[in-house]
């Protein structure tokens, strides 16, 4: 069995964002980057399936982006991925989900992947498109938003998360694409020996120009900070004075709920 | 713009959220029609054309066939925009329909600004407007972003749609109901919620103590539940409970849209967060910029003292 996991590197959402001079994207210089949270569940699921099948499946982890994404790929190899594929693209951030999916499909086509796992969405863009588009392009069935996954003899029985805690149980045959939702599993922390081992695993670098290129369908016109409605009273400073201020507020609020 | 609104049917009934699409279409302007894979019981109250395919034949969930039906309706209607709710149904189908129509897709639209679609970015810390380069466009609309105050009324002109039925590649085995609630947050007057910012499971008691001191219930954001620090009945949000307390205290919660969906009806919101720019500040009345692990126990002590001495 061959498994492909697609991961995206995204900014840490707790960073302070600044809009670039052209007003079209954020300044990347001041940000810390990490693996898209949803994609960690995808990696974990692939490794669990590999373990379930006695180590037979081969897990390839792919990421499109500038050189820094290799750090994220390396981390997934320490989680148990077998090899990495880095599609080198300095302009990845300006590409739309359609173009990203086309690059992934162009890489994957003809390689006989049985299962392609992606995150349900990327944290920075939140488009929830790439996984489904890859499936359409490869002609694979696709199940989205999985919070449960079990495999037996070519068939996956999965739980899709719907609204308000309801779930749908679905069944499909491989080959297929599945998109992973938060809580699908508990992603592992790489252990020190596995981090050392991962250093020796191969990351193949591929020039984006060697893959099929699709024209853009949608792009960012303007990026900006949301207008603050300015309703929140911000309490900063020394903890003792912060406490003083908040306690006075809560006294009145709690009195009214008694 | 000729917009096709994709309505949703679950368990034989129309999902109420479908009506939000009407308010979106209103903001966009132009003509509109609807499409639904459902049955008699799910027909919307709206006097527009409705392309209706029978869920008994195509299933309530079969993304491949549903996409084909929607594409067929869009072709017949000559739609240049197809709009879904950004829901588990909508985000699953929209890329399939966009792909078949050769259309650009813009996800989770929260506004229409001078003809461009406005969307959030980076957990709500940024916003952007999108330009599309295709003739047609597929949209998913953020839940709660477009609300209409009009009571839906009318009855549609129904046009039946049929396609060649095929065995599903993704088979729906059945639905699983949400787990039984062990905590009823819905009727609580005060809810104090723990977010990922509390750092570790061992800090849950700090938040629970504050909840107790304020006479409230303990809530949580999703990562706290996913990590197994609390069970699901504590989760507030679009996939948890919806709360309407008089006081909501968010401890180490960033304020993602799915969390806000569960608590924005709260009367008064206090957020405790070390990040002054956290999006929770948009809905909070008070944002205390502090480390929850230090601040919360001190606050609890003060409130306990107040309760004793009055
Ligand atoms: C379909 C779908 C459904 C979802 N449903 C839900 C749902 O029902 N409920 C829900 O909550 N989420 C839901 N989510 C997840 C949601 O998108 C967010 O990922 C989640 O709400 C984030 O939780 P959080 O704010 O606790 O964590 P984070 O976003 O990681 O935020 C942590 C916050 O804590 C602050 N912080 C960190 N350390 C400290 C400290 N020491 N002191 C003070 N502050 C600190 C940080 O500044 C940050 O603002 C859903 C997502 C999807 C895609
Ligand atoms: N640059 C990328 N490289 C590899 N995978 C990606 C990239 N962008 C998106 N993906 C995958 O597609 C999923 C959905 O992304 P999106 O459609 O952007 O929300 C992500 O969770 C990743 O698994």
CATH class of the largest domain in chain B: Alpha Beta
Taken together, the total number of domains of chain B comes to 2
The CATH architecture name of chain A reads 3-Layer(aba) Sandwich
Using DSSP, what is the number of strands of chain B?
17
Classify the secondary structure makeup of chain B into a structural class: alpha/beta
Helix content of chain B: 25-40%
Q: How are helices and strands ordered from N to C of chain A? A: EEEHEHEHEHEEEEHEEEH
Gap from first CA to last CA of chain B:
62 Å
Q: What ligand molecules are bound, each kind once?
A: flavin-adenine dinucleotide, adenosine monophosphate
The helix/strand series of chain B, from N terminus to C terminus, equals: EEEHEEHHEHEEEEEEEHEHEHEEH
- At the fold tier of CATH, the topology name of the largest domain in chain B is Rossmann fold
Account of the 3D structure:
The complex is a heterodimer of chains A (258) and B (310). Chain A has one domain (2-210): HUPs (Rossmann fold, 3-Layer(aba) Sandwich), CATH 3.40.50.620. Helix content of chain A is 29%, strand content 29%. Chain A has helices at residues 37-52, 69-79, 97-108, 130-138, 192-198, 239-257; strands spanning 2-6, 9-11, 33-35, 58-65, 83-88, 115-119, 142-152, 155-161, 167-173, 176-180, 203-207, 218-224, 233-235. Chain A has a 9-stranded mixed sheet, sandwiched between helices. Chain A has a two-stranded antiparallel ribbon with strand order 2-3. In chain A, strand 8 and strand 9 form a beta hairpin. Chain B has 8 helices and 17 strands. Chain B has 310 residues and is α/β, with parallel strands linked by helices. Helices cover 26% and strands 29% of the residues of chain B. Chain B folds into 2 domains: 3-160, Rossmann fold; 185-309, 3-Layer(aba) Sandwich (Rossmann fold). The longest helix of chain B is centred in the last third of the chain and has 18 residues, at 292-309. In chain B, the strands form 3 sheets. A 9-stranded mixed sheet of chain B has the order 9-8-7-10-6-1-4-5-11, sandwiched between helices. In chain B, strands 14-13-15-16-17 form a 5-stranded parallel sheet. Classes of the chains: A alpha/beta (258), B alpha/beta (310). The interface between A and B is large, with 79 and 92 residues. The complex binds flavin-adenine dinucleotide and adenosine monophosphate. Flavin-adenine dinucleotide is lined by residues 195-197, 199, 221-223, 235-240, 252-254, 256, 258-259, 262, 273-275, 278, 291-293 of chain B. Flavin-adenine dinucleotide binds at residues 195-197, 199, 221-223, 235-240, 252-254, 256, 258-259, 262, 273-275, 278, 291-293 of chain B.
């Amino acid at each position: 069995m061959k498994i492909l996991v697609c991961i995206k590197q995204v900014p840490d959402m707790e960073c302070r964002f600044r809009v670039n001079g052209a007003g079209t994207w954020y300044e990347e210089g001041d940000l810390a980057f990490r693996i898209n949270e949803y994609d960690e569940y995808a990696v974990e699921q692939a490794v669990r399936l590999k373990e379930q099948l006695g180590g037979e499946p081969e897990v390839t982890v792919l990421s499109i982006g500038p050189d820094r994404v290799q750090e994220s790929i390396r981390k997934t190899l320490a989680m148990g991925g077998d090899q990495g594929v880095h599609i080198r693209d300095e302009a990845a951030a300006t590409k739309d989900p359609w173009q990203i999916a086309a690059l992934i499909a162009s890489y994957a086509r003809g390689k006989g992947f049985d299962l392609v796992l992606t995150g349900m969405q990327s944290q920075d863009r939140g488009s929830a498109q790439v996984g489904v588009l890859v499936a359409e392009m490869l002609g694979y069935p696709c199940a989205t938003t999985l919070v449960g996954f079990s495999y037996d003899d070519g068939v996956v029985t999965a739980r899709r998360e719907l609204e308000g805690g309801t779930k749908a149980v679905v069944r499909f045959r491989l080959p297929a694409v599945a998109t992973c939702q938060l809580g699908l599993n508990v992603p592992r922390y790489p252990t020190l020996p596995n981090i050392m081992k991962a250093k020796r695993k191969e990351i193949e670098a591929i020039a984006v120009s060697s893959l099929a290129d699709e024209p853009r369908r949608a792009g960012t016109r303007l990026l900006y900070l949301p207008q603050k409605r300015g309703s929140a009273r911000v309490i900063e400073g020394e903890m003792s004075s912060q406490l003083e201020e908040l306690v006075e507020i809560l006294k009145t609020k709690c009195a009214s709920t008694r | 713009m000729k917009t096709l609104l994709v309505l949703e049917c679950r368990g034989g009934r129309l999902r109420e959220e479908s009506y939000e699409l009407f308010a979106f279409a209103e903001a966009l302007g132009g003509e509109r029609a609807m499409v639904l894979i459902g049955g008699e019981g799910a027909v919307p109250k709206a006097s527009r054309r409705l392309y209706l395919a029978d869920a008994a034949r195509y299933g309530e969930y079969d993304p491949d066939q549903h996409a084909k039906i929607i594409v067929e309706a869009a072709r017949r209607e000559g739609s240049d925009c197809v709009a879904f709710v950004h829901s588990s149904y909508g985000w699953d189908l929209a890329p399939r329909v966009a792909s078949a129509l050769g259309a650009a897709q813009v996800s989770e639209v929260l506004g229409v600004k001078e003809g461009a679609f406005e969307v959030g970015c980076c957990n709500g810390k940024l916003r952007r407007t999108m330009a599309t380069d295709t003739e047609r466009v597929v949209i998913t609309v953020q839940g709660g972003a477009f609300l209409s105050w009009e009571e839906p009324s009318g009855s549609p002109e129904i046009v039946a749609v049929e396609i060649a039925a095929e065995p599903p590649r993704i088979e729906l085995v059945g639905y699983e109901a949400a787990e039984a609630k062990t905590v009823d947050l819905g009727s609580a007057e005060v809810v104090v919620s723990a977010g990922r910012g509390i750092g570790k499971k061992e800090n849950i008691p700090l938040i629970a103590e504050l909840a107790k001191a304020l006479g409230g219930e303990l809530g949580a954001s999703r990562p706290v539940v996913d990590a197994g620090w609390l069970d699901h009945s504590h989760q507030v949000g679009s996939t948890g409970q919806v709360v309407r307390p008089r006081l909501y205290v968010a401890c180490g919660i960033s304020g993602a849209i799915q969390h806000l969906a569960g608590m924005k009806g709260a009367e008064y919101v206090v957020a405790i967060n070390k990040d002054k720019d956290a999006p929770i500040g948009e809905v909070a009345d008070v944002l205390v910029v502090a480390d929850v692990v230090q601040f919360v126990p001190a606050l609890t002590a003060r409130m306990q003292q107040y309760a004793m001495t009055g």
